[in-house]
Amino acid sequence: QVRLVEYGGRLVQAGGSLRLSCVASGRTFTSYVMGWFRQAPGKEREFVAAIQWRGGSVAYADSVKGRFTISRDNGENTVYLQMNSLKPEDTAVYYCAARETYGIRWSDPRTYDYWGQGTQVTVSS
Fold first, then answer.
1. Residue 116's closest CA among 6, 34, 2, 7?
2. What is the C-alpha separation between 40 and 46, in angstroms, rounded?
3. 24-59 confidence digits (pLDDT tens)
4. Do the Cβ atoms of 100 and 30 come closer than 8 Å?
């Protein structure tokens, strides 16, 4: 069992920046990949970024590459998502997720085993 809690979502103007945090607790040694997803009303859950917990390999969605950066602090059991140059289309609930497998594509939300409650990010134009 893994518990994930997100922090940092709020209202921000277009062009601004936010840093989201995800704190993991419980059986974190079973989690191999940590990911960030987002979901806007009426839309499917969308992959944002992911990171291999132990090795640090990263992956990004094309829509955020160059603007967002995922990182982790192993000692604090925390994953971060630094979001720069925010756009109104980035508005969504952002979820932190963890999975116990490595080889399956990281962008598929169906492959993740644990999810946080989400944090709302709103970007005004």
1. 6
2. 9
3. 998 776 778 999 999 999 999 999 999 998 889 999
4. yes
Residue 73, both tokens: 């602090």
Residue 56 falls in which region: left (phi positive, over 0), alpha (psi -120 to 50) or beta: left
3-state class of 74 per DSSP? helix
Whether 90 contacts 81, CB under 8 Å: no
- Phi first, then psi, for residue 111 (nearest 5°) are -90, -5
H/E stretch holding 21 reads strand 18-26
Full 3-state SS string of 101-113: CCCCCCCCHHHCC
| Alpha carbon distance 108, 98 (integer Å) | 12
Strands 58-60, 68-73: pairing kind: unpaired
For β-strands 119-124 and 11-13, DSSP reports them as parallel
